[in-house]
Specification:
By secondary structure, this protein is an alpha/beta fold. Helix content is about 35%, strand content about 20%. Bound molecules: zinc ion.
Amino acid sequence: MRITSTNNTDKTRYSIGVDLGGTDIKAGFVSSAGDISCRVVLPTDVETGGPKVVAARIAEAIRQVLVNVKTTGIHITSKNLENRRSGNAPDDNVHDIGVGLGAPGLIIAETGVVHFSPNFPGWTDIPLVDYVNAELAKRHAPKRTAPTDTHKQYKPILRAMDNDVNAMTLGELHHGAGVGYKSLVALTLGTGVGGGVVINGKVYHGSQNTAGELGHTIVEPNGRVCGCGNLGCLEAYAGAKNIVQRIQEKIENGRSSRLTDTIKDGVALTPRRIAAAAAAGDTLATEIFAETGRYIGIALTSIAHILNPQIAIIGGGIAEAGEKLLFKSIRTEFSKRAMDIPARMKIVKAHLGNDAGIVGAAMLAMENTYP
Ligand SMILES: [Zn+2]
């Protein structure tokens, strides 16, 4: 039996990656080459139920991915999937598929527990992996069928869960800007500032699963209040909300900007609108991005001195501000401050964009399925 896709060889492995967010659950069928197919997006529905309802939605997203796999004609042999069903009699017609999950918050990867998540208020020490696997077992109870490919059954098993930024970091390591590197750090600049650390090709979790909080590197000892309660964290300068607040304060204090009219018109400022104003020549907007870059460069200096990584990968919506507005000032500040050898760390934009979460989660499954 051969795989019909011309891009694949028999050595291609497959798993399912799930990116759990506060709003959406994104899932896809991912090859070991990092290609995503059979995508599904479902609303998380966190308002309508607790963790078991979200677990059921995740299981439903996985089921829909597998329906898409069957209908798109991707043809997979058992060699490309797992075959280590335990306890059951071997059945060549049932193929185990490893699933990986990236979830926001403080995740205890070893035990599959969400300790706390700002996106899911009230969740404390939720055994989400067990909940999802219980839902998957309900939906995918193996049935005896005729031994033909058309009746092939897929049995998905959630093999691993990690913090979503760790999953994205893993995605960039295997299939993005981190290909070819063994030690790297990743920063995601979104609503908050997330971080991931890879040492010797493995995501570093620390002694209690909290390593990699790079967004809470202090860049101003008596600076702005951060969401974590501390003063002067990078997130308090480079998070989306904070970038908007900083420019608003300057406008309120009398600085002129073409964004003044935007505010008067009742249109909410966003980093994207600020970047557009900067690109159109607005001095204040340009300054805000340069200052943001400067703070990122300060944080990266400490990070490089502590970890000496080969590369720092910067992703998330704010990284879209690009080379001229943001990355130039990051590199200038970093090279001014870092000692010569750690200063060799490259600073690059992430490659995978919104797909990093799904690809990374699938890699998490593969790492835990094919050691
Ligand atoms: Zn903080």
